[in-house]
Amino acid sequence: MAHTSVELDGTDYSCEWPAETTLLQAMLDAGIPAPHSCTMGQCGACQCTLEGGDSHMLNNDVLSDYDVEDDQRLACQTMRDSEGPYEVSYLF
Ligand code: FES
């Protein structure tokens, strides 16, 4: 588990992010109303800023290399590679 804090629409949430779970699924499992649509890395609805540790995306048909270097992630495709704690925000 990795502690993850989430800022969404002016509200602060937190959740635990299991290593085998995508960021989006971890947030949804915690009852956080994280935006999403396709859940396949194709639409960009789940785009967020992720800081606090390494991660990788299983699929990414949306974000440019520049976006990724700027800590942008598709939550539905993001797996964590460290223990965090992570910070998620939806301020672009
Ligand atoms: S929900 Fe469509 S890219 Fe993540």
What does this molecule look like?
By secondary structure, this protein is of the alpha+beta class. The protein has one domain: Ubiquitin-like (UB roll) (Roll), CATH 3.10.20.30. It has helices spanning 23-29, 65-69, and strands spanning 3-8, 11-16, 47-51, 55-57, 72-74, 78-80, 86-89. The strands form 2 sheets. Strands 2-1-7-3-5 form a 5-stranded mixed β-sheet. The protein has a two-stranded antiparallel ribbon with strand order 4-6. Strand 1 and strand 2 (11-16) form a beta hairpin. The protein is globular. The model has no long low-confidence stretch (mean pLDDT 97). It binds FE2/S2 (inorganic) cluster. The site of FE2/S2 (inorganic) cluster has 13 residues, from loops.
Gross morphology: globular
- Report low-confidence residues grouped into runs of 5 or more: none
Give me the side-by-side strand order of the main sheet.
2-1-7-3-5
Task: Work out the radius of gyration.
Answer: 12 Å
In total, the number of strands is: 7
